[in-house]
TrEMBL record:
Listed InterPro entries: FeFe-hyd_GTPase_HydF, GTP-bd, HydF_dimer, HydF_tetramer, P-loop_NTPase, Small_GTP-bd
Domain G positions: 14-126
Record's keyword terms, sorted: GTP-binding, Nucleotide-binding
Name of the protein in question: [FeFe] hydrogenase H-cluster maturation GTPase HydF
GO biological process assignments: tRNA methylation; tRNA wobble uridine modification
Organism the protein comes from: Roseburia amylophila
Hydrogen maturase F tetramerization domain mapped to chain residues: 282-393
């Protein structure tokens, strides 16, 4: 991804699903006018999901996901379908391709997306090869209770109809949410406290910091920044106290003790708790920390898949904070990337990172899984604020 592109996590994710050789890749290529996906008459050509960032007029920044066939077979096929299931958890809009009279597998996916409240465009593909497409479409309409788009990827008019229907499914308010929300207005002075520790990439800022700065500039705020050791000097140099201070969560208490009384305080991770997740549930779940014992199990869920670093906030600092409060016997498991367990019942608490690398749909899928299994789930910033005794004093 080039430096001027919208991060994938901020793009609407459009996933294409169907059986092997149902025309998913052909439809993507015809729609985009590019050879985004490999096309072949051999069933199962697409193995792992292929993610392609695009800019589509009427939709905006998006990611197309070309997935493996939902009917793939064998041990490798089972693994491919599992990858497809993970892609479905990230999907904001699903394009479900039906390719013939046998469509039970597709209907199961239709009901999955319906249960997850994922807008779904049902397509009867390869219409140029079907002799009874109208009859099949009528049957599918009866089964799904929604209109079925009958198209051929070789027909330009059909592709235009597909584009119109896809645009119609984009939520009206998509992209209107902002990181800082109602915390700031034009002209507000905002101070960012950003310790440049070993986790910070050399010569660059981490993604949540970059995205927050851009959000504040879009709000036409006055943005200042400093490292933790220069906080007092920076405050003294300002003509007025900042309206809002945004800090790295790991120095929450330090900044809270030094901030002007009138300045609001939050952290990058707390902002992302609301922007990408469910702050109310995170806050409610943080209280579960008080009931943990040395026999408890905590799951730390990172989004990034970087190699473990010394003083890593998720792998070292938060576990150390928890064990200092609860006891050395506390069990803390770590997962990263998309390696999030289906069965969470063994855990007494989950602590998710800010999730700057994931789209909101995927984060909410994790939260819903935790809720269904009655497992409390918080995030880095909210948990650290609770452990620091200032959760009720921060803004979001």
């Amino acid at each position: 991804m080039s430096l001027n592109e919208t991060p994938s996590a901020n793009r609407i994710h459009i996933g294409f699903y169907g059986k092997r050789n149902s025309g998913k890749s052909s439809l993507i290529n015809a729609f985009t006018g590019q050879q985004v996906a490999i096309v072949s008459d051999v069933a199962g050509t697409t193995t792992d999901p292929v993610y392609k960032p695009m800019e589509v007029h009427g939709i905006g920044p998006c990611v197309f996901i070309d997935t493996a066939g939902v009917d793939d077979v064998g041990e490798l096929g089972k693994m491919r379908v599992e990858k497809t299931e993970k892609a479905a958890e990230k999907t904001d809009i699903a394009v479900l391709l039906f390719s013939g009279e046998e469509y039970q597998a597709e209907l199961e996916w239709f009901h999955y997306f319906k249960e997850k409240h994922t807008p779904t465009l049902c397509v009867l593909s390869k219409a140029d090869t079907l002799t009874d497409s109208d009859s099949i479409a009528a049957q599918l309409k009866e089964e799904t209770k929604q209109e079925i788009l009958v198209i051929s990827s070789k027909n330009k008019e059909d592709i235009e109809k597909f584009k119109e229907e896809l645009i119609r499914l984009v939520p009206d308010d998509y992209g209107e949410e902002t990181i800082t929300g109602a915390l700031v207005e034009e002209g507000d002075l905002v101070l960012l406290v950003m310790p440049q520790d070993i986790q910070a990439p050399k010569g660059r800022l981490i993604l949540p910091q970059v995205q927050t700065i851009r959000d504040l500039l879009d709000h036409k705020c006055l943005v200042m920044s400093c490292t933790t050791d220069k906080l007092e000097d920076t405050l003294a140099a300002l003509a007025r106290p900042p309206k809002l201070i945004i800090t790295d969560s790991q120095v929450f208490r330090t900044v809270y003790d030094k901030k002007p009384q009138e300045s609001l305080l939050t952290s990058f991770s707390v902002l992302f708790a609301e922007y990408k997740g469910d702050f109310a549930y995170y806050k409610e779940s943080a209280a579960a920390i008080s009931s943990l014992t040395e026999e408890s199990k905590v799951l730390i869920a990172e989004c990034c898949t970087h190699a473990p670093l010394k003083e890593d906030i998720g792998r070292e600092k938060i576990p150390d904070m928890l064990r200092k409060r609860i006891g050395a016997g506390l069990t803390v498991d770590i997962v990263s990337g998309t390696d999030f367990p289906k069965d969470l019942s063994n855990y007494d608490l989950i602590i998710q990172c800010g999730a700057c690398m994931f789209n909101k749909k995927y984060v909410m899928t994790r939260i819903e899984r935790a809720k269904e299994q009655k497992v409390p789930m918080s995030n880095y910033g909210v948990a650290i604020a609770y452990l620091s005794g200032i959760l009720d004093k921060i803004s979001y």
